[in-house]
Design goal:
This protein has no helices and 16 strands. A hairpin with a 3-residue loop joins β1 and β2. By secondary structure, the chain is mainly beta. Helices cover 0% and strands 49% of the residues. A 4-stranded antiparallel sheet has the order 1-2-3-4, with no helix packed on it. A 4-stranded antiparallel sheet has the order 9-10-11-12, with no helix packed on it. The protein has a 4-stranded antiparallel sheet with strand order 13-14-15-16, with no helix packed on it. The two termini are 37 Å apart.
Length: 192
């Protein structure tokens, strides 16, 4: 993941926590030699973001550490600092957002390569799928009254990624904005 061209004439990339280099002929735009491992122990985030950079004069900087695990647990922490695990079921949970009334958590969960938005009822411990169609749905944000979610969503590559919100108790999606052809993604971060 995360290939970067180095002025030393190499393309650097990561694989399973290791950083590699392969000679690259810029004029022919082709690799011109075998790959070679440079070092082990570079932090690689779950979806490929690798923590390294190369300067214009070829100096390498990186963050050392093991690859970040893809398995998380949802934890509730009360005002006194006591933590209680809400879910530890082997699923991946990302972008948790607490509902305005504090009774639900909207999260993104990945199943294979597909991401969906789910709502966890904190008291009951039940998980309800908001988006279950193929495509990428993530980063939910609650409306101030707790009746809707704004999410980043992609249903098909032709229409491109967009910003959507849920309507009604069945959480039907309605797109508000799309970037045709897989362009820039829109990410909700707050709702005023």
């Amino acid at each position: 993941t995360n290939p970067r061209y180095s002025p030393t004439g190499h393309v650097l990339f990561a694989r399973a926590g290791s950083l590699y280099a392969i000679a690259f002929d810029e004029g022919r735009t082709k690799v011109s030699g075998p790959e070679r491992k440079l070092l082990d122990g570079v932090i690689v985030e779950p979806y490929g973001a690798t923590q390294y950079a190369v300067s214009t004069n070829g100096v390498l900087a990186y963050v050392a550490g093991p690859p970040v695990t893809r398995q998380q647990e949802l934890v509730w922490v009360d005002r006194a600092g006591h933590a209680v695990t809400l879910r530890n079921d082997g699923r991946e949970y990302w972008f948790p957002r607490l509902s305005p009334d504090g009774t639900k958590v909207a999260v993104t969960s990945y199943t294979g390569s597909n991401s969906d938005v789910w709502i966890l009822d904190v008291e009951r411990g039940t998980l309800q799928g908001v988006t279950t169609a193929s495509g990428e749905d993530f980063e939910p944000v609650w409306s101030p009254d707790g009746t809707r979610l704004a999410i980043s969503s992609e249903r098909d590559e032709e229409e491109g990624p967009g910003l959507a919100w849920t309507i009604g108790p069945d959480f039907r999606l309605e797109f508000l904005l799309r970037t045709p052809g897989g362009g820039n993604w829109e990410f909700p971060t707050s709702w005023s």
